[in-house]
Amino acid sequence: MRKAPRQQRSRATVDTIVEAAARVLARRGWADFTTNETASVGGVSVGSIYQYFPNKLALAEEIRKRHLDAVLAAISGSEQRDGAMTLEQCAAKLIDGVVAAHNVDQDLHRVLLDEVPLAARSTQDEFEAEYLRRYQGVIALASGKPDPKRDEIAGRVLSGAVEGVVHTAARHGELDSPALRAELIELVCAYLRGRSAS
Which DSSP symbol is given to 77? Predict the structure, then answer.
């Protein structure tokens, strides 16, 4: 962002701009995404947009950042398991969180994933590190004996598998499929059980 909003009113303006931009981006795609239409949809001036965002890529990057924050919030706690939770319930909590985060606006998610270029100062690396930490926590809980080096690789494998299925389902509008949910839970449980047995 060009300028961080400090007062309540300026934070509300930025929220309005970002929400309007997300609607335009989801509807138009990256190639036809403009700050003029964003201003019109948000009921703000183009000057207000440029006060906070130097270009449309910076605006899209803020949308992406908020989406990634929502993903982390949705899977928060999935790496914590109380004694009463079964492995299946723990896996279901993780899968439900990932699906919920991607199910908010599937068109927007598709555009962010397939069309918007990553900005030079993207928060992607920071997000991926925290995202993997959540998966590694699930893996360590399931095994009962943490192995940091092996758990790190396993976190990459498991998150890649889950994300691959979820992203494909999002592209095809199939995130609400109960059969897909059941298969993903089974995949996670089978992987975790297999690691525990080895």
Answer: T
- Structural domains in the chain, CATH included, are 1-54 (1.10.10.60), 63-197 (1.10.357.10)
Q: What is the pLDDT of residues 11-62, one digit of tens each?
A: 999 999 999 999 999 999 999 999 999 999 999 999 999 999 999 999 999 9
Q: Is 25 helix (H, G, I), strand (E, B) or coil?
A: helix
Q: What three-state secondary structure class fits 79?
A: coil
Cβ atoms of 170 and 120 closer than 8 Å: no
Distance between alpha carbon 7 and the CA centroid of its chain, in Å?
Answer: 28
Dihedral sign (CA 115, 119, 124, 125): positive
Q: How big is the chain, counted in residues?
A: 198
